[in-house]
């Protein structure tokens, strides 16, 4: 019921101003990620992140801190970090996108020194230079993958292009409400909450495990691992076309008899009935 109310509010608050279609391709955000990887390979981890950081970009170290504040305050980081985008989307207006995929970090000379995992990067288009800047980047660590990851790049629906809303805060309030409703639902029933909010194409990134794709597999994982979650929204961001968004916050997760604190980032997409569905969720462990 709460989701239906939020969808109705969203529909009534949307800017329906028609705009001429502009060519937008998911390849643009994939290229931004690939160039970021090349920059890190050439200049190192610290200078690579500083070279692409959005002015408001953030990382979890372990609490939320600006990318620029964190990397300007540390020495050059050792080791070699490389990754490959395999999952990507971009908004219809082309101003917000994300990529996700496997990474390898090596701080030594042998294969035993390699650390494997998956990452998520969220990118925002900077209108001043028409380049994508990194909003956030975080990852999970897991054992070496046994299979090659299938590439999933999907083009945006250009019919969703629209002029930016005259009241951008209205959309953010709806997203905050959506994320809050999901968090409240988690406190009542983890499985029911995910079943209600997950996109059919959803992906789930939990430390120690390879990414899980699809609603059925995610629900099975949550049930098998005995996961229960309490979470709180910190902030949200969205595209001007109001079809792609992200939220982030803090979570306390009980897995079996073990309880740990996490940060989360969620990527949301809007469906034909103007309901926000969760396309991706990733958790980052808060180290003691």
Cα radius of gyration in angstroms: 19 Å
Q: Give the helices and strands as they follow along the chain.
A: HHHEEHEEEEEEHHEEHEEEE
Tally the beta strands.
14
Number of helices: 7
Biggest sheet layout: 8 strands, mixed
Give the overall shape, derived from the CA principal axes: globular
Low-confidence stretches: 12-18
* Proportion of residues in helical segments: 25-40%
Provide the residue-averaged pLDDT: 91
Distance between the termini: 39 Å
The class by helix and strand makeup works out as alpha+beta
Strand content: 35-45%
Describe this structure in words.
This protein is an alpha+beta fold and 288 residues long. Helix 5 (168-188) packs antiparallel against helix 6 (190-197). It is globular and about 50 Å long. The protein has helices at residues 2-13, 27-43, 45-52, 67-72, 168-188, 190-197, 215-225; strands spanning 53-60, 64-66, 80-83, 87-90, 96-106, 114-126, 131-141, 152-153, 198-205, 212-213, 227-238, 244-255, 258-270, 276-285.
């Amino acid at each position: 019921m709460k989701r239906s109310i939020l969808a109705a509010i969203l529909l009534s608050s949307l800017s329906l101003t028609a705009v001429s279609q502009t060519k937008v391709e998911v390849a643009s955000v994939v290229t931004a990620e690939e160039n970021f990887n090349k920059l890190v390979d050439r200049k190192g981890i610290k200078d690579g992140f500083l070279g692409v950081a959005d002015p408001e970009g953030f990382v979890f170290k372990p609490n939320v801190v600006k990318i620029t504040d964190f990397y300007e305050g540390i020495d050059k980081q050792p080791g070699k970090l490389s990754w490959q985008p395999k999952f990507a989307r971009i908004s219809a207006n082309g101003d917000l996108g994300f990529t996700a995929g496997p990474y390898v970090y090596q701080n030594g000379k042998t294969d035993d020194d390699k650390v494997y995992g998956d990452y998520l990067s969220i990118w925002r288009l900077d209108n001043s230079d028409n380049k994508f800047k990194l909003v956030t980047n975080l990852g999970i660590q897991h054992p070496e993958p046994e299979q090659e990851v299938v590439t999933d790049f999907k083009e945006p629906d250009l019919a969703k292009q629209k002029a930016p809303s005259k009241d951008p805060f209205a959309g953010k309030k709806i997203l905050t409400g959506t994320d809050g409703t999901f968090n409240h639902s988690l406190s009542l029933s983890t499985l029911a909450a995910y079943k209600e909010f997950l996109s059919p194409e959803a992906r789930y990134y939990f430390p120690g495990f390879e990414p899980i794709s699809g609603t059925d597999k995610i629900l099975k994982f949550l049930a098998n691992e005995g996961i229960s979650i309490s979470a709180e929204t910190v902030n949200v961001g969205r595209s001007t076309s109001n079809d792609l968004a992200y939220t982030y916050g803090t979570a306390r997760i009980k897995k079996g008899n073990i309880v740990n604190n996490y940060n989360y980032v969620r990527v949301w997409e809007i469906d034909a009935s103007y309901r926000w569905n969760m396309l991706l969720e990733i958790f980052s462990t808060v180290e003691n």
